[in-house]
Amino acid sequence: MIDLLRTFLAVVDSGGVTSAASVLNMSQAAASQQIKRLEEALDSRLFERAGRRLVLAPAGERLEAQARRLVAQSDELVTAMRAAPFEGEVRFGVPYDIIGSFVPSILRRFAKAQPKVQVSLVCEDSKIVLQQLRSGGVDLTLTTETECGRQGETLRTDRLVWVGAPGGDAYAKTPLPVSLGAPSCTFRPVAIEALGKVRRDWRAVCEVSRMEPVHAALEADLAVAPLLRSSVPERFEILGREARLPSLPEFRINLYAPPGLSPAARDLADHVRASFSGRQKEK
């Protein structure tokens, strides 16, 4: 049943059986069969089609939260039983845009499982932490990218969205005030290209990748910003069609854990995988 629920959640997160099968490293036919088996076991239709995407049917909506909880518990149990008492240091790279959304819970669980391992957190843009991975500056890293590079694995697919202050009007100003990341930020060129395609004039209000100044500009209604949907704090608003801003593409949250890792680093990588397979950020 856990494998069936894992496939169900992969379809929910990716919006389709084909994408889910790719993430789970199985054939499309096998993924479809697992969804069918789950629907038969629960005697419920879990998905409906909306254009090219699959969306949750009412029964699927009721199942999602419990499925995530069960899969997370299963993964945590397996990880705990396999874990050995490691020592040493692990250098973990994480981009600014997802560190607050996902990393704290991962590090809390890892610290409980491996209290003798010291984790050194390196927070930079995805391009920079990948460079540090190649140079040996970090042992493993998360990234946010439109694709997944060699030796990487996609843990989740998420939509880039425009975000502003609730009730704000920054989105209506001309030129459009935008909080953009530094030149190394992977969101920056995508947002600029999207604005260029619709010929929307814009000006940069904030050009750093650290989240504190970006959030400050949003709270003051001085700008809008492109953020991953799952990383949008509750105090901000995801701007809809009424804002008349160009749509933005999906990004992948990838894990790069190259061969030759220390046992402690491999265990941290397992904790990262378990966290993403069993948890969706609650909105």
Give the SSE layout.
Elements: H1 2-14, H2 17-24, H3 28-42, E1 47-50, E2 53-56, H4 58-82, E3 88-94, H5 96-113, E4 117-123, H6 126-135, E5 140-145, E6 152-164, E7 176-180, H7 187-197, E8 202-207, H8 211-219, E9 225-228, E10 237-238, E11 250-256, H9 263-278
Parallel strand pairs: 3-4, 3-5, 7-8
Antiparallel strand pairs: 1-2, 5-11, 6-9, 6-10, 6-11
Question: What letter string, H or E per element, gives the SSE order?
Answer: HHHEEHEHEHEEEHEHEEEH
Share in β-strands: 15-25%
CATH architecture of the largest domain: 3-Layer(aba) Sandwich
Name the structural class: alpha/beta
Number of helices: 9
What is the count of structural domains?
2
Unreliable spans: 279-283
Helix percent reads: 40-55%
The outline comes out as globular
- What average pLDDT do the residues reach? 91
Gyration radius from CA atoms, angstroms: 20 Å
- Largest beta-sheet characterization: 7 strands, mixed
Strands, total number: 11
Name of the CATH class of the largest domain: Alpha Beta
CATH topology of the largest domain: D-Maltodextrin-Binding Protein, domain 2
Distance between the termini: 27 Å
